[in-house]
Design brief:
- The chain has 159 residues and is mainly alpha-helical.
- The protein is built from 7 helices and 2 strands, in the order ααααααββα.
- Strand 1 and strand 2 form a beta hairpin.
- Helix 3 runs parallel beside helix 5 and helix 3 runs antiparallel to helix 7.
- It has one domain: Four Helix Bundle (Hemerythrin (Met), subunit A) (Up-down Bundle).
- A two-stranded antiparallel ribbon has the order 1-2.
């Protein structure tokens, strides 16, 4: 039986991420506020990487699915200031939409026993925890995207 709470959370969190990105253009997507390295584009791409590693891949048993170069650009080990070639914001939006379908399809058949299986033995974390942690991280990055949008608008208007 599907875990309705995880499914609802995945859909709600991802819908908000996509709403935040729907009016973002390439200039805004690549804006790095003074003193910061991460852009709206980096935060959105990072969401893809994190949810592949914490949600989709452990739930399906398949390797993470994203373009090979994305890990170096968007992972927790990335150095955005050194990246010279980025995907477009549209490519990241498409990846986010596609990933939601794969994540919800992966969650739907999981039993409570499968969700309770430890997938990170070093930390004692279950599959349920891993999926939840990925979605929580996404929600955190929504705040960063929202703040960068506000900072970009303020910079553009001079107010």
């Amino acid at each position: 039986m599907a875990d309705e709470t995880l499914l609802l959370l995945a859909k709600e969190v991802r819908a908000k991420t996509l709403r935040l990105l729907e009016d973002v253009d390439e200039g805004q997507a690549r804006f790095a506020a003074p003193g910061l390295n991460n852009t709206i584009l980096w935060n959105a791409g990072h969401v893809v990487i994190v949810n592949e590693h914490l949600g989709v891949s452990p739930a399906t048993g398949k390797p993470p699915a994203y373009p090979a170069e994305w890990f170096d650009r968007f992972s927790w080990h990335s150095e955005p200031a050194t990246v010279t070639s980025w995907p477009t914001v549209d490519q990241v939006r498409i990846a986010l939409r596609d990933q939601l379908q794969r994540l919800t399809a992966a969650i739907e058949p999981l039993s409570p026993q499968q969700l309770a299986k430890v997938v990170d033995a070093a930390r004692g974390r279950t599959l349920r925890y891993s999926i939840l942690h990925g979605l929580h991280d996404e929600a955190d990055h929504q705040g960063e995207i929202y703040l960068l949008k506000k900072m970009y608008a303020k910079r553009a208007t001079g107010k």
